Amino acid sequence: MKQSNFKDEWKLFKGSFRVDHRFWFIMLWEVVFILSVVAGLAVFSAKMSSIDPMMLQAASQASQPFTLNNALMMQGSAQTVKDVQTMVFSYTAAILIYMLLVMSLFKSIVYSVLLKKRYRAVFSAKFLLAQVIWCIILFIIIGMLNTLFLKTLFFSLDTSAGARLTLFISLVVGIILFSYLTIMFFLAFTRTEKVWKSLKMLFWDNIAGIGRFLRPLFLTLLTFIALNIVFRFTNRLPTYVSIVVNAVILLAFITWLKIYYNACLERTAPEPAKQRMVREKVTKPAKKPEPARKKRVVKQKKK
Questions:
Q1: Cα 208 from Cα 200, distance rounded (Å)
Q2: 72 near 6, Cβ under 8 Å?
């Protein structure tokens, strides 16, 4: 593993702000991903809104006084409620599947561009599997943290300014830490295209060896705090202008974060196996020709 001091770390940090073609391509695909998500949510919202009249009709029929005619109508309303439940379940399942497919497609393209790998459609399918497994892992971790901290520490703290500041800092650190783990996992997966190997790399190289990444995490935290200061000024702009400007700044930050963490990972990663093989091949002494072959060559020359 390569070791570095803070001077090298600061040089790498400053160099990560140099905008190249990768930055614009990654940011472009992030924008396309967000637009696809917004379009999917808009369709989902429209479909769910179409259910409201059916629910209102069923509710009004249920509130009518009991008569034979109303009893027959209530049977129809019960069937309507079942149909509504089926539709809600179907629409919810459809939007979740759509989100997973869209995320796996565009995120696999983003990480391929980031690592300068040729994109393949089969990689998106593998990325989908890795994404589902990673979501399950994050869900378990967040559930454990919720049980250990939020249900114990959160409700035991008073409402003083110091307590609120402590919770805010904990939330920011948690977001940065989860972003770090997520990006590192998918960087490892893009390199190996194997989930289990990527998880082992994440644990041994990034969690067990997190000391090597404390400086990048600290610099990321400072950058995030600086962004929040910038947002205080941009929020004073007109509403729609402020939303657009903040969205662009946030997208640029997410794009930069991927590039910066990838640079940190490449700096601290072991020497690639291919480079070791090339070095060994160069340094390995050449084999001496066999004696029998020498005699055969000598005989041919005499003839």
A1: 10
A2: no
